[in-house]
Amino acid sequence: MDNTQQIPTAETIQPKILYYGTPVILLNTSNEDETVNISPISSSWALGDCIVLGVGLGGKAIENVERLPECVINIPGPSLWENVEQLAPYTGKNPVPECKKAYGCSYQKDKYAASGLTPIASMTVKPTRIMECPLQIEARVKSIRIPDYSTTFAIIETQAVHVHAHKDIIINENHIDPQKWSPLIYNFRHYFGLGKQLGKTFRSEN
Questions:
Q1: DSSP character at residue 62
Q2: Are 131 and 115 in contact (CB under 8 A)?
Q3: pLDDT in tens, the chain (206 residues)
């Protein structure tokens, strides 16, 4: 019997989206009247204290950070997926941009009421944090760039200034316990949590 592993073949495809499995972010920004807009986004990466966000143009989030360059990057866990989805069909932009009307968005100013989430004051930035999110990162916007190869989104570089974490996921004072914390993952427009642990890198401190 041949026990060699079969190597899967690959085909070239043209997917409409490339959300191949990234954490969901609830991005809080300040409106002109100091209320808070909450934008679900699914494009981000972090290195050191730099967090880079991909934000669509034409919405309220990009307008807000251009006016006031600070935000809160809230990272929900899997149990909050329904709250996140409650926000999906809404925009804080009024009138609703044509690009958002095309896929059924409507205007909603009070995103906290729409999502069933709870505001909590930030330490140094104006937008509030979301109490239910296990990780809440206050950040300053350092750079906004629209790539020349695509004019539908902006690349926003932020610098974390305060990181807040629920007590039950903290280990050794300043570390997040990966056994207790799992981000909500946006995987080709479906919501997932993480599966079981497979291992850890040699640089892991716990």
A1: H
A2: no
A3: 566 678 899 999 998 888 889 999 999 999 999 999 999 999 999 999 999 999 999 899 999 999 999 999 999 999 999 999 999 999 999 999 888 888 889 999 999 999 999 999 999 999 999 999 999 999 999 999 999 999 899 999 999 999 999 999 999 999 999 999 999 999 999 999 988 877 767 567 76
